[in-house]
Design a protein that fits this description.
The structure is a homodimer.
Chain A lengths: L9 H12 L4 H10 L2 H5 L6 H10 L3 E7 L7 E6 L1 H16 L7 H7 L6 H29 L9 H25 L7 H14 L6
Antiparallel strand pairs in A: 1-2
Chain B binds a DNA duplex through helix 2 and helix 4.
Amino acid sequence: MNYMTQEFGIWEIAVLALLREAPMHPYQMQRLLKERHKDEILALKRGSLYHAIGRLERAGLIEVENTSREGRRPERTTYRIAPAGTESLLDVLRRIISTPRQESSEFMAAMSFLLHLPPDEAALQLAERCRRLQWQIDGLIAGLTAASAHVLRINLVESEYLLAMLKAELAWVGSLEVDVRAGKLTWNTEYLLKGAAASRQAAGNGKD
Amino acid sequence: MNYMTQEFGIWEIAVLALLREAPMHPYQMQRLLKERHKDEILALKRGSLYHAIGRLERAGLIEVENTSREGRRPERTTYRIAPAGTESLLDVLRRIISTPRQESSEFMAAMSFLLHLPPDEAALQLAERCRRLQWQIDGLIAGLTAASAHVLRINLVESEYLLAMLKAELAWVGSLEVDVRAGKLTWNTEYLLKGAAASRQAAGNGKD
DNA sequence: AGTCATATAGTTCATATGAACTATATCAAA
DNA sequence: TTTGATATAGTTCATATGAACTATATGACT
């Protein structure tokens, strides 16, 4: 009933979704995703496409329809989705939507170790992030406004989501910066690093 | 001035940050991160730690302090941070904080292809996600409240960030579900898939 | 005394990733 | 007409990832 639903990456989902529209060859998938600006938003690296296709084929989720050649260009292999592929696609979509997962982000890591920067430096970088988030938001809004004239809303939900998340992040980062600048949140890097080491030693350098 | 600042993963940052507190061996890093619940929030897989350490050592950012052995257990190698390591750590932190990056998430991919599910099914899964997000939020708030009694706020910022993001996601997913349930946002999967294929063919099956 | 779970400490290996490369065709400008 | 940019279409290969494995020690419980 579910085939290999676990090990799905983003490329696998994209490939199955595209092949559900019509059979096509890998290069066409790239063009289509680019045309629809999904490549930026999903951060797809083209080099990984052919690997994903290989995996899907081995799993029996897609099939070769035919191979053709124009002039002396490389051969084009056209794929189509298999019935199992459609089922798998819907399975993963259901699972991903229903089940939030803790995906690790660089920024969370940086926040985890924020105390390594002195407060004034931290405030500076946070302010810069705010500026760039605002640019991104402005750009995204412009794009959404332009697109909504000729694209159905269902095809823009991922951008709406991204926009909501960027706005929330901007608000949070902004408020953190304010707290740091106002001294409402502050710290002493030297002290914390020494302190942590000392308390660990006091605790017998071992178990908590 | 900046050494290999680009290819830093989350493990690299964690290792440098920990070694800045005191020299220690890899296993102790794991324990410390677990003790501080950073491992969950950063989604660190322990198998990758030793690889990260190898890279950092080759890059000259950390150094072996000594190796010891207790009984017949495997050897423990204690590392310390090199001056270049401290600089690199601060460099990456500054860069990551100041520069938002589009990191690709599963959920964004699912939203990109939401039209593959029929609207009522989509609403169902979105509702389930809301429920689980709410649990996560409740748990996180409980954890934060408990921790704030004996942990400095600077050591909890990443959880505050996560909380803000989860709340924003819950709000957005909730409003999307409402829109779908109310028919304010709806779609016809069959029609859209056929339509997309047809319009591509009309456009000469090629360049846009 | 024996078994079971857990902590200690790290290694191996199959698989995944993505930057760079290969090679041709086409069109525009100089 | 030669150069240079871009589109076409996919492959290679060094490196990264992480699940599973190795092997001992310790304490708990039966």
